[in-house]
Specification:
The protein is an all-alpha fold. It is built from 18 helices and no strands.
């Protein structure tokens, strides 16, 4: 089987998982009416998916290294597909939430090893850059496409079909994935799987994601949020101690000895925390202030997806190959900052063409260049035996960063809106003021990512040139210089 056809199979499975993270959002009102969710419990249709997804990525990625990535990938697809069928068939809230949790488990298992399989199949720098570009497009644009498809399917066929549509795709991908080349038996057979470390990190991540997503309802300063956050930190600290002492640690400390890896993960976390608010808050602005329906809202974010696709698939591989990820990434982050800054000036009596569309251009171009660069850098220090773990780390950072950013930005927007309403502002004016603040704070997050990119990710001293980040793993001495400090 052609490696490029195999890449299409991997990306089809990944796209299905990414779409599910946002396709549900526009269907929430219909789900609430159909299954009788209360306003306070409706958010758990999303949270029941996010918590296992964010908590299991790291563990599943390591299992891919130990027991075979293709086996883990196919297992995740099967779980996700069966859970999607159960979601579509759900006749009450309890069944839907249980099936959504299972979807999150399957999504985490599938996503955790996809990037590792991509970089393992494509070893030549130019090909790897193009393959990572395709993967990055799926990662970046999938959420935006989900908003459009969710509106179309909900209006045309009913909310059940946002889940049923996964079934034929999942079955086909699982069957074809069994023929994906380079099936690995796993490097850790016979080794300890560090069960204690697995329990500690999975519990810590799940509690952390729960504390973040629940903060939108209870507040970041509430006893519930602080309590769960503190327990998560204690478990994380115990995990770090365990990894330093374990004979075969789940997360080997060597993973953080490469400046490119640590810097890329830090940059990625800040970028996603700031950028993820665009998908959520721009949608709310178009619906609640501009009066768009679900389909119009989805169409409104299509320019971002198109530009991300053009950049990721065509321009990014060439720029990364010629100039290197460390040179391309700062320029991309500047564009994203500019796009969020434009959104920070939206007005209550504005329009899509004057307030939203101008921001989609720098956001689409910037994100389409930034994601391939970060994906390549994050994988650059991973050995073939650790690539599944590195892939899981990259996706874990993305999921936790998205959850934190969304919870923080939405809370800030709601607080600002409430204050403006109390001061006598109109409904549209108060909502717009809240969105403005959130977009500006998001821009600050991305500015922080820019600072990390130009400091931690600076070119190693003595390097005369930098290969494409996508090819960095094949030349670790040039791309990733071990550092005593992460």
């Amino acid at each position: 089987m052609s490696r490029w056809f195999a890449l299409a199979i991997l990306c089809a499975g990944q796209l299905m998982v990414i779409l599910d993270g946002t396709i549900v959002n526009v269907a929430l009102p219909a789900i609430q009416e159909s299954l009788g969710f209360s306003s306070s419990s409706l958010g758990w249709v999303v949270n029941a998916y996010l918590i296992p997804f964010g908590g299991l990525l790291l563990l599943a990625g390591r299992f891919g290294d130990l027991f075979g990535r293709k086996r883990v990938f196919v297992t995740g697809l099967v779980v996700f597909t069966v859970a999607s069928l159960l979601c579509g068939l759900a006749q009450n809230a309890t069944v839907l939430l249980a099936a959504r949790f299972a979807q999150g488990v399957g999504g985490a298992v599938t996503s955790s090893v996809t990037l590792a399989m991509v970089v393992t199949m494509f070893t030549e720098p130019g090909e790897r850059a193009r393959a990572i570009g395709v993967y990055s497009f799926v990662q970046s644009a999938g959420g935006t496409l989900g908003l459009l498809l969710g509106g179309v399917l909900t209006q045309a066929a009913g909310w059940h079909w946002i889940f049923f549509v996964n079934v034929p795709i999942g079955v086909a991908a699982a069957v074809l994935a069994r023929r994906v080349p380079a099936a690995d038996r796993g490097a850790g057979r016979g080794k300890s799987t560090d069960a204690l470390g697995a329990v500690l990190i999975t519990s810590a991540l799940m509690l952390a994601v729960y504390a973040i997503v629940a903060a939108a309802d209870h507040g970041f300063g509430s006893a519930r949020t602080l309590g769960f956050g503190l327990v998560a930190l204690v478990l994380l600290a115990a995990f770090v101690v365990r990894q330093a002492r374990a004979e075969d640690p789940l997360l080997p400390p060597r993973m953080f000895r490469y400046r490119a890896v640590s810097g890329a993960l830090g940059t990625h976390a800040l970028l996603i925390s700031g950028m993820f608010g665009f998908q959520f808050l721009a949608v709310l602005y178009m619906q609640k202030v501009l009066g768009f329906d679900e389909v119009e809202t989805g169409a409104g974010v299509v320019p971002v997806s198109l530009l991300i696709g053009l950049m990721s698939l065509f321009l990014a591989p060439r720029l990364l190959g010629r100039f290197g990820a460390r040179a391309v990434l700062p320029a991309a982050l500047v564009l994203i900052c500019a796009g969020l800054g434009i959104l920070g000036r939206v007005s209550a009596d504005g329009s899509y063409l004057t307030d939203v569309f101008p921001a989609t251009v720098p956001l689409g171009i910037g994100f389409g260049l930034a994601m391939p660069a970060l994906a390549g850098l994050a994988m650059s220090g991973a050995t073939p035996q650790d690539s599944g773990l590195a892939s899981g780390m990259f996706n874990t950072v993305q999921q936790v960063g998205a959850s934190l950013g969304l919870a923080l930005l939405s809370t800030l927007a709601a607080s600002r809106t409430g204050a403006l309403l109390h001061d006598g502002a109109s409904r549209d004016g108060a909502l717009t003021g809240g969105y403005q603040l959130a977009f500006r704070v998001g821009a600050v997050f991305v500015l922080g990512a820019l600072v990390v990119a130009v400091t931690v990710l600076r070119r190693p001293r003595g390097a005369t040139s930098e290969a494409s980040a996508a090819g960095a793993a094949s030349r670790p001495a040039e791309a990733d210089t071990p550092s005593a400090t992460p």
